[in-house]
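Problem 12. The chain below contains 426 residues. Write out its predicted structure in token notation.
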Amino acid sequence: MKKIILSALIASSLVFTGCFKDDDTPIVIETTTVNNYGDDGNGNGGETCPVVAVTGAITEDTTWTSDNIYQLNQKVVVDNGATLTIEAGTIVKGSPGTGSLASALIIARGAKINAVGTATSPIIFTSTGDNITCGQTAGTNLDENDRGQWGGLIVLGYAPSSFSGDLLENQIEGIPADDTFGLYGGSDATDNSGVMSYISIRHGGALIGENNEINGLTLGGVGNGTVINNIEVVANVDDGIEFFGGTVNASNLLVWAQGDDALDIDQAYSGTIDNAVVVLGGISDHAFEIDGPEGTGTGSFTLQNVTIVGNTVTENGEYADYRSGATGTTSNIYAYGFKDSSDVELDNDGVATNYNNGDLTFGAWEIVLPTGVTDVASVFANKAETVTVTGFGSTATAITQGANTVGATTSDLAWTYANAFGGFGF
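Solution.
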């Protein structure tokens, strides 16, 4: 473990101002120096890693490089027309704070993020409380139980989403209504918010209001011109990854030890989520929480090739909850490690009706049954008040652990922090 000592603030700082929607908050860049005293493995010590503190709006194309640590102080917004490029191996740290002081990186509609890491040099979003520094992929002082130390990553686009009242656009949760950079939704299914690949998001979910935390990765109205793959979220207070409408496809995802739901779908999201691993922690809720449209707009999700691992520690920890008229397909799911009380649930009459009409369908599920459960179909529960269903759970098979023929290709996620420190054996 290297010791990290904050040295003097460099005397000069740069201040850039520009159009920040209706808020004239400037972007402020200050550079400090962090000296890392210790052996780098080659008999050398005393390397230097600058910390670049960022606040406000990024209004022109900007690049963050791996030889710096970038510190988010409150909300940093990449504004319409600007592209933020983040080099492989770059570390971004969010400052602590709640409410209006919560730190987050927000990619507004019309802006882009070009964040392309690699399996050996992922881009890491974490907390200022994490002692990770340049050239490292993990610190030593935080683990999967350290949550809520900063906000999260929010990406917003112009793709269709189904809102109450059939509004064309909406304000993303967590951003005050008068901050127009929080708007998402539109009519462009092919909207492009950039590229995100090999990114690890850790220890987020700061409280922004009563019972309202920021997700690890929030995707609001993001279009299928956007590329999202190889993303992990570890130790977030709220959901791991939440899809608010939009059409974006996402693959090679991992969520570990979130506080609420791992993969959350809302507002007629109509993309494909492919090859994902969910490992519930001690306070986690659902592996999947899936809602449908809020207005008359429609969209059907595809969720496929997913391995979900439960917990037996608390009353929480469910397989999945399908709610609010959800429409789409869930297939090739491998599940193990859940409690005998855990279920895959149709939550209400609307979603049960969609199941009966063939608008909500299920392919293969392979489940390692918990102790005391003898019938795999009993894991699938219809909680609708007045609508009965038949055949729910008929596509599921009981298997022994490790005998699965469906689920994620976990080797694609061997690069993750979760695999290295969770002992999953990918």
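Discussion. Residues 109-422 form one domain. Students who got a different answer should revisit the alignment rule from Section 12.3.
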